[in-house]
Write a structure and sequence with these properties.
Blueprint lengths: L11 H5 L4 E4 L4 E3 H9 L2 H13 L5 H13 L7 H16 L3 E14 L3 E7 L3 E3 L1 E3 L11 E8 L2 H6 L1 H4 L3 E4 L6 H17 L4 E5 L25 E4 L1 H12 L5 E6 L2 E15 L16 E7 L9 H20 L7 E7 L7 H10 L6 E6 L9 E5 L2 H12 L8 E3 L8 H4 L5 E5 L2 H7 L12 H20 L8
Parallel strand pairs: 7-8, 8-9, 9-10, 13-14, 13-15, 15-18, 16-17
Antiparallel strand pairs: 1-2, 3-12, 4-5, 4-11, 6-10, 7-11, 12-14, 16-18
Helix pairs in contact: 3-15, 4-10, 4-15, 10-15
């Protein structure tokens, strides 16, 4: 999950509106005022999309489609049968929806399974603790690891107390500030504990709110550093142990984890399109294709249903194409839906897609990813040139009927960062992150966390933005 920095577009719009040309290609040179007028002409189309998604026959469709999948398949961990079943179901669904060029692109992805796991506090009293092993962690010996605990609140404290850590289980009780600052303890906690001789590490869940709910996620070992078992514990248990040691109590925990890493598994990115109207030769010559990409990831962790992360993002991306198709619209450029595989393991499917398609990078006008929830949107996060940002602000003004018009910074996302780093404009949906990180990577990520009316609004935003950018006369300008 990316760091989210909220800034508004400011005074540079005045300069852009001065009448000077802001974008040039081989055939045209247009002023910002001309582009602004072009975008304004999409008002009726935007209203039709909004009416269909929020008030019309398509309302609640993305929610109902998502509920059917996650109730049928459940969680979809990388390498699992659940993920591969979901991919096959989605491929069939997209074909039945009448989308074009539906196909699967093969990817090798990590395969890890948590197995049976437990943590029991033996001293100063007996208590069974809720844990979730972290992705790619090794397991413990069958008899487990029984050791005294060292509680720290930061990596700096761990280094200062390095001599105390040897032979112990390190417990991190780091305070939650925001996701990007706090997640480093989940990702790097085992490595830092192993450096100072710890036998295992337990990390306070990276969560904005907890009702005794552990939150899992990926962790990363490093070459040259011993691999030790690592799991997340609840906020409540981390704080309890911190209080205990502050009073001088000795804590002993028995940790058992049956986690195993297996050889990479076969998987697929799932692709579907509405083929653009301006390049009819593109089916025979895919390199000529001009593309706006909309996406979410289909995989999830192995707890809950993966409804919020990222079923909602995947299904509003499908819904965007469905809404456009229902209205008989066909943009000039191709709208390409990609449902990524193995995002939770570091964007494995997306990196493979980038490697396979980057030769045509100049044909991508915008890459979009929804992976921060589909609650009521606040606006669009965007990364691109100031000129492109000014255009996106005008596009977002078309969403005034549902009061979602703001353009924020930081449009990056795990699955689209490869393109953004090469200069392609990128966009992400922004909504209630406090709520998102309350359920994130936990057993609570189920359909109960979702709201069909909020998904309707999110789908309308996604459809309007993707359609207008795909249909404009020119691609978004780059730096």
């Amino acid at each position: 999950m990316k760091f989210l920095l909220f800034t508004f577009v400011g005074a540079h719009l005045l300069a852009l509106n001065s009448g000077k040309a802001i974008w040039r290609n081989d055939t045209s040179q247009r002023t910002f005022q001309e582009i602004k007028e072009e975008i304004a002409r999409y008002g009726d189309v935007a209203k039709a999309i909004i009416d269909l998604a929020v008030y019309g026959k398509a309302q609640n469709r993305s929610y109902e489609r998502l509920a059917l999948l996650v109730d049928t398949v459940g969680s979809r961990l990388s390498g699992s049968k659940g993920l591969e079943k979901a991919i096959q179901i989605m491929c069939q669904n997209l074909k039945e929806d009448g989308l074009e060029n539906v196909h699967l692109e093969p990817v090798k992805i990590p395969h890890w399974e948590r197995g049976e796991e437990s943590a029991v506090m033996l001293e100063p009293r007996m208590q069974k603790m809720a844990i979730l092993g972290l992705g790619s962690s090794i397991g413990t010996p069958p008899e487990g690891i029984t050791a005294e605990v060292l509680v720290v609140t930061s990596f700096d404290e761990l280094r200062r107390r390095a001599q105390e850590a040897r032979g112990k289980i390190v417990v991190y009780n780091q305070p939650y500030t925001n996701y990007s600052n706090t997640v480093k303890y989940r990702v790097q906690g085992a490595v830092e504990a192993a450096r100072v001789g710890a036998l295992a590490s337990l990390i306070r869940s990276v969560a904005s709110f907890s009702i005794y709910s552990p939150h899992t996620g990926i962790q990363e070992y490093q070459d040259g550093v011993p691999q030790i078992p690592t799991a997340c514990i609840t906020v409540e248990d981390a704080e309890m142990m911190s209080r205990m040691v502050s009073r001088g109590s000795k804590i002993v925990i028995q940790l058992k984890m049956g986690a195993k890493n297996y050889p990479d598994a076969d998987s697929f990115n799932t692709v579907a399109e509405i083929i653009g109207s301006k390049y009819p030769e593109q089916v025979e010559h895919p390199g000529d294709l001009k593309v706006v990409l909309v996406s979410g990831h289909l995989d999830s962790w192995d707890v809950g249903q993966g409804a919020m992360d990222d079923g909602g993002g995947a299904f509003i991306s499908w819904e965007a194409l469905s809404l456009i198709q229902d209205l008989g619209l066909r943009p000039k450029r191709t709208l390409r839906l990609v449902l990524w595989t193995a995002e939770e393991q570091g964007g494995v499917g997306a990196f493979h897609y980038y490697q396979s398609h980057k030769a045509n990078i100049s044909n991508y006008s915008l890459v979009m990813e929804s992976d921060a929830g589909t609650f009521l949107p606040s606006g669009l996060q965007f990364t691109g040139s100031e000129k492109a940002r000014a255009i996106m602000k005008e596009v977002m003004s078309l969403l005034q009927p549902i009061n979602v018009t703001q353009v924020f910074s930081a449009g990056e996302g795990t699955d689209i960062n490869f393109w953004i780093q090469d200069g392609v404009p990128g966009a992400s949906l922004l909504d209630d992150l406090y709520k998102y990180f309350s359920f994130h990577h936990s057993r609570g990520d189920t359909m109960t966390a979702m709201d069909p009316k909020q998904m309707n609004v999110a789908a309308a935003v996604w459809a309007v933005v993707s359609y207008v950018v795909a249909d404009m006369e020119e691609m978004l300008p780059r730096s």
